[in-house]
Design brief:
Elements lengths: L1 E3 L7 E3 L5 E11 L7 E9 L3 E6 L3 E5 L2 E4 L15 E2 H5 L3 E4 L2 E14 L2 E10 L7 E4 L3 E2 L11 H6 L5 H9 L3 H10 L2 H8 L4 H10 L2 H10 L2 H10 L2 H10 L2 H10 L7 H4 L6 E2 L5 H8 L6 H4 L1 E5 L10 E6 H6 L23 H10 L4 E5 L5 E6 H8 L9
Parallel strand pairs: 2-7, 14-15
Antiparallel strand pairs: 1-10, 2-3, 3-4, 3-8, 4-5, 6-7, 9-10, 9-13, 10-11, 11-12, 15-16, 17-18
Helix pairs in contact: 3-5, 5-7, 7-9, 8-10, 15-16
Length: about 400
């Protein structure tokens, strides 16, 4: 049975009892000149964001949408050896030669040539700037074992296209630094911003430092203001100031406001872009706002009602209406009639422990943050709080 590796990305992995324990993130192979690349095993990501190694000898079956293994899985963190290559992470997008002509690798096929012995047997290649794919035997390809400086990342990105930003960030974190830079350069600004928000700080700073300042500023503009502020806060002052100056004034303004607050306060953690509407808006309009697919669930759970202007910092804060309440009343009902005024907002200087207690006490996923003038300046969501409560290094499984 021949299996193309790019199709395995994200495939669920099941133990002998039929329980899903993780997903395939890569294939590990040994590549030696003149010999068929031999598959050593699979990199499996288990929760929370830990990558472990599944030897190919333990794989009992690979079917549509499932990999089943026998025995027990070693939970020790996967560490790539110097003699090993990640098939997805390092071999896709290689420039190789087939019949003396340069080609780009966009997929590779593995086969079980003998019981429990898997090899890379076929390579899918395409000419540069053309869409005429060919599938050739590995013997016809030269260059699979070559380290290349400008490898590109189109094939790798295509293989990971359906992944959530957090999963792509985990895959990117596991790559060698060279490939991280190549993938970051190939991602568009919006996708890169989404991925950066999910990466450990060291990766964020490393990747941002490889981008031209103008592009780095564009990517920061696409990030949530709170995430951009967190990143800028940890950069050297000179670099942070330069990037802020390159950002569009409208995009930089909320980031600058967030930088004035202590990091572990409501003001330092909040998003400045919650859903805000005037009291004259209808429930139908509110539902249309929270229905936007790019809105995080915690942000979409509540609509904040204020006087104009309805962008932070707003006019007078009037109250909040919850998603459940919006579903109970007629669509034509005005928001001013369904405000929950029983919950007092929190102040920007409220420290992290008290913010956490507030959310837990009232069973909320978000809380309005209102300044001394009675203006809504943002909202703290439960994911913002968790980011600061979890141990340092949790994003890389530490």
């Amino acid at each position: 049975m021949r299996i193309f590796v790019a199709r395995l990305a994200g495939t669920a992995v099941f133990d002998p009892a039929g329980d899903q324990i993780g997903r395939i993130r890569d294939i590990v192979a040994g590549v030696r000149p003149g010999q068929p690349p031999r598959v050593h095993g699979m990199v499996v990501e288990i929760q929370p964001r830990r990558r472990v190694f599944l030897p190919i000898t333990r794989v009992r079956g690979i079917e549509a949408g499932a990999v089943v293994f026998t025995g027990r899985l070693n939970m020790r963190r996967f560490e790539q050896r110097a003699t090993e290559t990640l098939v997805l992470g390092q071999m896709l997008d290689l420039t190789v030669e087939v019949d003396g002509e340069p080609m780009i690798v966009y997929d590779l096929a593995i086969e079980e040539v003998r019981p429990a012995i898997w090899q890379i047997t076929k390579v899918a290649v395409v000419k540069k700037r053309r869409r005429d794919p060919r599938i050739v035997d590995w013997r016809e390809v030269s260059g699979l074992d070559t380290l290349q400086q400008d490898q590109g990342a189109a094939g790798l990105i295509a293989a990971f296209e359906s992944m959530r930003a957090a999963d792509l960030a985990s895959a990117l974190h596991a790559l060698p630094d060279k490939r991280k830079i190549e993938v970051a350069a190939a991602l568009d600004d919006v996708r890169l911003a989404d991925v950066l928000e999910e990466l450990p700080l060291s990766d964020q700073m490393g990747i941002l430092g490889t981008l031209a300042p103008e592009r780095a500023a564009d990517v920061l503009e696409e990030m949530g203001p709170d995430d951009a502020a967190d990143l800028l806060q940890d950069l050297p002052d000179e670099q942070s100031a330069r990037l802020l100056a390159l950002m569009e004034p409208r995009e930089a303004a909320p980031v600058k406001r967030l930088l004035t607050y202590d990091e572990k306060t409501a003001g330092g953690m909040m998003t400045t872009e919650p859903v805000i509407l005037p009291p004259s808006a209808t429930i139908a309009e509110a539902l249309a706002q929270i229905r936007q697919k790019d809105l995080p669930p915690a942000v979409a759970a509540q609509v904040y009602v204020t006087r104009a202007p309805n962008e932070t910092p707003t006019g007078t804060y009037l109250g909040v209406t919850h998603f459940q309440r919006l579903l109970r009343d007629p669509p034509s009902t005005l928001l001013g009639a369904v405000i929950d005024a029983s919950l007092d907002p929190i102040r920007p200087d409220l420290p992290l422990p008290e913010v956490t207690a507030y959310l837990a006490t009232y069973n909320l996923v978000a809380a309005p943050v209102v300044d001394e003038l009675g203006q809504l300046v943002g909202a703290v969501t439960v994911d913002d709080v968790l980011d600061h409560l979890l141990p340092e290094g949790w994003r890389d499984g530490g």
